[in-house]
Write a structure and sequence with these properties.
Elements: H1 2-20, E1 23-31, E2 43-50, E3 54-59, E4 73-80, E5 86-94, E6 99-108, E7 113-123, E8 132-137, E9 142-147
Bound molecules: calcium ion (3 copies).
Length: about 150
Amino acid sequence: MKRIAGFLLVLSTLMVSSAAYATTYIIETLTCNLDDADVDDSQVYLSLYGTANQFSYFQLDNSDRDDLERNAIDAFQLHTFDLGDLTSAVVELVGDDGWCFEWIAINDTSTGRVWTFYYGTWLDGDSRAPQLVVCTPESEFSGFCSAVR
Ligand SMILES: [Ca+2]
Ligand SMILES: [Ca+2]
Ligand SMILES: [Ca+2]
């Protein structure tokens, strides 16, 4: 009986987790073509807020490669809940190695919808540039990121 209960628990956990992580988001960024625009020594986190759910502090880092280099497009995969329609995205830099990014695009692969947020300037933990910006859609699938005061 105990064994059956354990099996059912594993089975239900598997069902819940596969249902919960129903969506893969592909996140792409373009780093500016400027000196020092790249990031090696800071961490960049993305939080996504949607009508159905939210996901906090996804680190933009592929462990097997040097990401966020000057004038490069990087792609990151986030497996998570279905967030619904994106209402905002927050990009936060932790550290003193500043990052300049042109845009960040969030592709919901389950629906094919892509939100693109333009920024075109710096995040920096050690200057007057903001460390955190909020990106919001203005038309249906694109918008801008800006510092919140
Ligand atoms: Ca830098
Ligand atoms: Ca890098
Ligand atoms: Ca990396």
